[in-house]
Amino acid sequence: MASKQEISQNGLWTNNVALVQLLGLCPLLAVTSTVVNGIGLGIATLITLVLSNTLVSLIRGFVRNEVRLPVFVLIIASIVTIIELTMKAMFYDLYLVLGIFIPLIVTNCAIIGRAEGFASKNPVGIAALDGFMMGLGFLIVLSLLGGMREIIGFGTLFSHADLMFGEPAKVLTIVFNDEYRGFLLAALPPGAFFGLALLIVAKNIIGARKSEKVVPIENLPETA
Amino acid sequence: MSSRQILLSGLFLSLFAVVGTSFVAVTEHNTRAAIAENERRVLLRNLHALLSAEKLDNDIVTDTLLIPASELLGSESESVVYRARLRGEPVAAIFNSIAPDGYSGKIHLLVGVYVDGKIAGVRAVKHAETPGLGDALEIKKSNWVLDFNGKSLDNPTRGAWLVKRDGGVFDQFTGATISPRAVVQAVKNTLIYYQQNATTIF
Fold first, then answer.
1. Is the Cβ pair A81, B21 closer than 8 Å?
2. Dihedral angle over CA of B26, B31, B32, B34, nearest 10
3. Per-residue pLDDT of chain B (202 residues; tens, 9 = 90+)
4. For residues B109 and B123, what is the distance between their CA atoms, to the nearest angstrom?
5. Element at A197 (helix H, strand E)
6. Does the CA dihedral A120-A122-A125-A128 come out positive or negative?
7. In the list A3, A78, A145, B72, which could disulfide-bond B20, CB 3.0-4.6 Å?
8. Does B23 touch chain A (CB under 8 A)?
């Protein structure tokens, strides 16, 4: 069984949903035009992952093998619908921004992937932790990408923070330069692909540096 | 697999369907009032943006009229008109108009028209125009839509209800002519619709 540390490292870094597994790209690329959007969808995905992993782990003892996938899908779909309704009731303005992407969480392969690949084989506590760490890894990438695109695309950071955190959060918004006209490419979908590519590059460079420290240089496999 | 096993699996799956649906139903029941209130609040906010609250005293959200699909409004099915009144006298009507020919599909507008045929205000409520170019039709991005305030079919003349590039009086945006052109046309058509149907609206 994986240790808690391994699970955390897996979710946040080694096996990061967005940077390594490249799952859930549709919502990832579509909503990350600002930090607040990224955080919003990230939190919704994180909650879904924790709940679905927990429930799937709870029923893993008696779920019948032939129907396990439909049962997992049912669980995930119910959770997402409940989250959507709750969001509509409590954060309606944010819902107006993220609305169409919330139901899409159901189709985020990362969630059924963790349910089938991990939660259905591990005890509840560990499965919940895995869901949390995978979700957190996804949330961090969404926020970073949202931040990059917002700074370059609009010259602001945390704009519309009030949608999520209420009126007082308006002060969070940082405008770097009032004269900045914006850089359209970053705000449009291609900017999301470039941004994600840069994040993956950064992760790989840092990863390569780390392994250099452990592996003596002459033992490194030849690079292509 | 024996039929007994198939039956068991089927029952198991149905059980989960029932449990899952029940949770969703309970949540729906508990959030219904809050969601309806939110939708009403946002609608009221949008309507009051066109027509400030002191200009009317009726409940504009419920004082509505369903009008049949009309080419002038760009609608393909029935659409709602909100009616503002002050002490029982009609003040203005707010139409849901659609500009069908935006740069990226339809542009949904709220167009407020005073009883005398002057524009009370125009707001884009839903669109997919290019961020940074065409989206200047949003009040959040620029004040362009405010140019419509007070305009009517006589001011400017019908022939001048065009963007400047086409010889009209309305500004286009730097780098984007299609979005403003579509909106100008839709607002003009809404005024024409109002003129043709004024007697039946209130």
1. no
2. 160
3. 688 888 988 998 999 999 999 999 999 999 999 999 999 998 898 899 888 888 888 888 889 999 999 999 999 999 999 999 999 899 999 999 999 999 989 999 999 999 999 999 999 988 888 877 888 888 887 899 999 999 999 988 988 999 999 999 999 988 789 999 999 999 999 999 999 998 888 8
4. 6
5. helix A189-214
6. negative
7. A78
8. yes
Contacts 24+ apart (CB under 8 A), B13-22: B13/A67, B13/A70, B13/A71, B13/A74, B16/A71, B16/A74, B16/A75, B17/A74, B20/A74, B20/A75, B20/A77, B20/A78, B21/A78
The answer to whether ipTM exceeds 0.95 is no
Determine the Cα–Cα distance for residues B93 and B21; give it in Å rounded to an integer: 42
DSSP string for residues in B7-43: HHHHHHHHHHHHHHHHHHHHHHHHHHHHHHHHHHHHH
Residue from B11, B13, B29 to probe the interface with A (highest A Cβ count within 10 Å): B13
- Tokens representing A116? 């089938």
Neighbouring C-beta atoms of residue B149, cutoff 10 Å: 13
User: Which residue type does A190 have?
Assistant: P
- Is pTM, for the whole model, over 0.80? no
Which residue intervals of B51-77 are DSSP H helices? none
The CA distance from A204 to the nearest CA of chain B, in Å, is: 32
Tell me the residues of A at the B interface, defined by beta carbons under 8 Å apart: 33, 63-64, 66-67, 70-71, 74-75, 77-78, 81-82, 85-86, 88-90, 92-93, 96, 153, 182, 184, 187-188
CA distance B89 to B28: 39
